[in-house]
Every structure is written in structure tokens, then in C-alpha cells.
């Protein structure tokens, strides 16, 4: 039995859909911290195909043990809250997996987690989790995903459309941003045993591209004039403060347009600027048989989320 966590999320949902394509539903357990929020039609379809849907809250060890019961291989999606809260949630999930007899965990980590030191706050949690997983006695694989292309083409683009300024501290740095679809396919490959056990895989795109280039692509495709505003880290922090984005993951997100704290965003943008995200791996093609998707490949899909461009009135 395969256990897939976070099926209500963007990456977890893609992993669930891909697993349903290749594995009978009777061999699948899907979990979510809030199953009641999943659309009834989707739940009915899963049920008809034999999928079991269970509640699994990383902050509730009892729910994790109940959700993972009967599983052999677990897809463990990383939690959202950056910092010690997330580290403890990940320990809870690994402990629960071990307690109920899970044999193997496929965990979504981060590209820089394997580096001995990094200033990107997100890497700390993943490094700690990888070490805990490696010491758990379970078999494991980690996907060290780069930053998602969709974050830039959709989420950051949405903010830029508000006033025409794409604010970032990434400067002219480049990175091998990766598509979620590619990460999902790699996750499924590892979950179904196609990788080498007890191995971490860097999961990247196949091209180096700058945030400036992405901004220009979005502007050209949308017809909306966007200005690339290169800022210092301190200036970007101040702008996010004004926008209502908390600096810490434990802050108040009630006014935030993002689910991420600004420490996470700004340190990742700095990572792009400083070149820590420039690794290009062959993982996607080697494990899935497909070349990585590019920003250009995702542009049309991303455009469906953008506001229509204002047109000059007919004269």
C-alpha cells in the first residue's frame, strides 16, 4: 500500500493523480489535514476507484499513526510552517511511519538542504529532517526540489500585476527553477522504487533563467507593462512588511497575499542572486524519461490565472 500525504495541495494533488494513473486505487491511501475541504466530487471519484481517504495532521501524532496504518511506502510532503514547528511536524510524521511499520519514505526536501551551510531559511528545516530520516532506520529517498517555476509565473506575477512593478532582490542571478509536474513525476518514480534507496536527488529544471527574464516573459505574453524593480534584501523586507507579509512563519498571515513568510521569500531571492540555485541535474529525465519543462512550456497555462490586459478604447 502507498500512502500519499497532502493530496489537497498543489504538489500532493499531482502526485495523487499520477499514482492513480499507474497504481490501482485499492493500493492507495490518500491523506489530508482537512479531508472535509476536498470537493465531494473528487472524494467520490477516489472512493469509486478504491482509494482510502484519511485525516493526517502533522501536529497530531495519533492521527498520523491511524492514517499511515497498513501502508508500506509513504510519500511525505513537507509541511508549510518554516522553522522549529515544521521540524517537529516532520519528526512526528517519521516517528509515526516507523511506529506502524512503513518500509520506505519519499520526502520532498529542498535543493540546498545537502549543503553544509546556507543562508536560505527553508534549507535549515529540510537539512534537519533529512538527518532525522537518515537516522530513523527506515529506507528513504529525498527529492531536493529547486524553487517552483509556478511560484514566479503565477504567485509573484499576481503581485506584480497589481501596480506594474516586479519587486525582487534576485537581481540578474539565474537558477534552474523546476516545474511542479516534473517534481510530481520524480516523486512517483521514487515512491514506486525506480531510484536507488537511501539516496537524495536534486530535482531541477534543465535551463538557467533569471527572475528578470521571467518578468519579461510574463509582460510580453500578458500585454501588461511590468517593470523589473531590483531591490536590496532590506528594501524587499520593508516592502513585504507594508504588504502585510509576516517575517516569521509564526506571524499573522491574515493580510498576507502569500502563504510564505518574508524570511523565506527574501532569503530564496537572495539565493538566486548569489547563485546557490544554479545546479542542473539530470534527475527528471533519468527517472521519468522526459526532459524538464521550461518556463516557456508553462507560460500558456500560467496565463489563465492572469488578469486581462487593459486595451486602448476603439477610436
Give the uncertain stretches in residue-range form: 311-315
What share of the residues does DSSP label as strand, in percent?
5-15%
What is the string of SSEs from the N terminus onward? EHEHEHEHEHEHEEHEEHEHHHH
The number of helical segments is 12
CATH top-level class of the largest domain: Alpha Beta
Distance between the termini: 65 Å
Work out the helicity level. Answer: 40-55%
Our Rg estimate from Cα atoms comes to: 20 Å
Structural class: alpha/beta
Write out the CATH superfamily name of the largest domain: NAD(P)-binding Rossmann-like Domain
Largest sheet: 7 strands, parallel
Description of the structure:
By secondary structure, the chain is an alpha/beta fold. It folds into 2 domains: 2-145, NAD(P)-binding Rossmann-like Domain (Rossmann fold); 147-179 and 206-279 and 293-306, UDP-galactose 4-epimerase, domain 1 (Alpha-Beta Complex), CATH 3.90.25. It is built from 12 helices and 11 strands. The strands form 3 sheets. A 7-stranded parallel sheet has the order 3-2-1-4-5-6-9, sandwiched between helices. Strands 7-11 form a two-stranded parallel ribbon. Helix 1 (10-22) crosses helix 7, helix 3 (61-68) packs across helix 4 (84-100) and helix 8 (211-222) packs across helix 12 (295-303). The chain is globular, with a radius of gyration of 20 Å.
Amino acid at each position: 500500500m502507498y500512502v500519499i500525504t497532502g493530496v489537497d495541495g498543489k504538489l500532493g494533488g499531482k502526485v495523487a493523480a499520477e499514482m492513480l494513473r499507474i497504481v490501482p486505487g485499492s493500493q492507495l491511501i490518500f491523506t489530508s489535514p482537512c479531508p472535509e475541504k476536498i470537493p465531494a466530487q473528487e472524494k467520490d471519484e477516489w472512493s469509486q476507484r478504491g482509494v482510502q481517504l484519511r485525516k493526517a495532521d502533522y501536529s497530531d501524532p495519533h492521527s498520523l499513526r491511524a492514517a499511515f496504518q497498513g501502508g508500506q511506502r509513504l510519500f511525505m510532503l513537507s509541511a508549510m510552517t518554516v522553522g522549529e514547528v515544521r521540524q517537529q511536524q516532520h519528526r512526528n510524521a517519521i516517528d509515526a511511519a516507523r511506529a506502524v511499520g512503513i518500509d520506505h519514505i519519499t520526502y520532498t526536501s529542498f535543493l540546498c538542504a545537502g549543503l553544509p551551510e546556507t543562508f536560505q531559511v527553508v534549507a535549515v528545516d529540510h537539512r534537519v529532517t533529512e538527518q532525522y530520516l537518515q537516522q530513523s532506520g527506515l529506507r528513504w529517498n529525498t527529492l531536493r526540489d529547486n524553487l517552483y517555476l509556478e511560484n514566479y509565473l503565477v504567485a509573484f506575477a499576481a503581485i506584480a500585476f497589481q501596480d506594474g512593478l516586479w519587486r525582487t532582490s534576485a537581481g540578474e542571478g539565474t537558477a534552474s527553477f523546476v516545474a511542479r509536474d516534473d517534481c510530481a513525476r520524480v516523486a512517483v518514480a521514487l515512491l514506486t522504487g525506480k531510484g536507488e534507496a537511501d539516496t537524495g536527488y536534486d530535482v531541477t529544471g534543465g535551463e538557467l533563467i533569471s527572475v528578470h527574464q521571467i518578468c519579461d516573459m510574463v509582460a510580453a505574453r500578458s500585454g501588461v507593462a511590468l517593470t523589473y524593480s531590483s531591490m536590496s534584501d532590506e528594501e524587499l523586507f520593508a516592502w513585504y512588511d507594508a504588504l502585510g507579509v509576516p517575517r516569521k512563519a509564526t506571524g499573522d498571515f491574515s493580510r498576507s497575499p502569500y502563504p510564505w513568510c518574508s524570511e523565506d521569500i527574501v532569503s530564496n531571492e537572495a539565493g538566486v542572486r548569489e547563485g546557490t540555485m544554479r545546479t542542473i541535474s539530470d534527475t527528471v529525465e533519468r527517472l521519468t524519461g522526459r526532459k524538464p519543462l521550461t518556463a516557456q512550456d508553462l507560460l500558456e497555462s500560467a496565463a489563465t490565472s492572469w488578469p486581462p490586459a487593459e486595451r486602448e478604447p476603439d477610436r
